[in-house]
Amino acid sequence: MIKDYKISFFLITFFFIIFIGGRVFADCQNKFYTKNEKQISEIQISFDQDMKWQKKLAELRIRMLRGQKRSLRNVKKRHSGEVKVIYNSGETCVFKSAIRYHGDFADHITFMNGYVTTSLNVKLLDGNIENIVNFILLLPETRYGDNEIFVTTLLKNLGILTPKTFYTKVKINGNYVKYIFQEVIRKEFLESNNLVEGPIFEGHEDFEAPIKEIKRLARISNEEWIKNSDTKILSSIKSVIRGQLEPV
Predict the structure, then answer these.
(1) In angstroms, how far is the first alpha carbon of the chain from the final one?
(2) What are the residues whose beta carbons fall under 8 Å from the beta carbon of 100, sequence distance 6 or more?
(3) N or C: which end of the chain has fewer CB within 10 A?
(4) Cβ atoms within 10 A of the Cβ of 89, count?
């Protein structure tokens, strides 16, 4: 009788974890929040190999101070980590992530309480935040603080498609850092705006360089979309050529 009771208790506990726990997990991956629920209280970031991450950032800082921009590729590799999102509603979601340093200039990297702190490029590997999989956490000074929030809000109200952009509090290395959260324009951005996925063109960012020294004016940022399709490749090439030849 006692043995049967233990078996029954085990089965009830097992199914509770599977159905109830599984449902909560699924909500974290795909849930669309209401206006109040979706507000993020804070984000917490941790790295699987924190010392390796700090070492790479220190190396990056030294190279930038020496003006060695072209040798940054191996430093900007992604590191595995965990992103925990805590919402105002009280719900907490945890995502496996691939994270790398973001930025080309020294303003994207600074020291805070003994730790190197930088702008970050985050890719969620097992879920999304409001249908966002890729996003950037920008140090506010790299975008002139409130200016970035104002411009994206203004453009949105004028009917121009803009990535979700807002301030958020992030805990990293035991410190709280104020970041600008900005969605990376990928297929999820198009889907959220009820658009069919197509080529997304990214312009050249070196605005100070003379036109004759710029080797490219635009590139396709969602290259996965054109793979294994000759039609998509050809239409994308035509679009790039037309965009660079036609006057703005």
Answers:
(1) 82
(2) 76, 77, 78, 79, 120, 121
(3) C
(4) 13
Whole-prediction pTM value?
0.74
Domain residue ranges of the chain, discontinuous segments joined by +: 1-30, 34-184, 198-248
DSSP 26-79: HHHHHPPP-TTTT-EEEEEEEETTHHHHHHHHHHHHHHHHTT-GGG-TTTT--E
35-87 pLDDT per residue, tens:
445 689 999 999 998 888 888 888 877 777 776 665 555 567 899 999 999 99
Residue 49: how many other CB atoms lie within 10 Å: 12
Query: What residues contact residue 167 under an 8 Å CB cut-off, 6+ apart?
Result: 140, 149, 178, 179, 180, 181
| Beta carbons within 8 Å of 44's beta carbon, 6+ residues apart | 83, 84, 86, 170, 171, 172
Using left for φ > 0, alpha for ψ between -120 and 50, and beta otherwise, residue 147 falls in: alpha
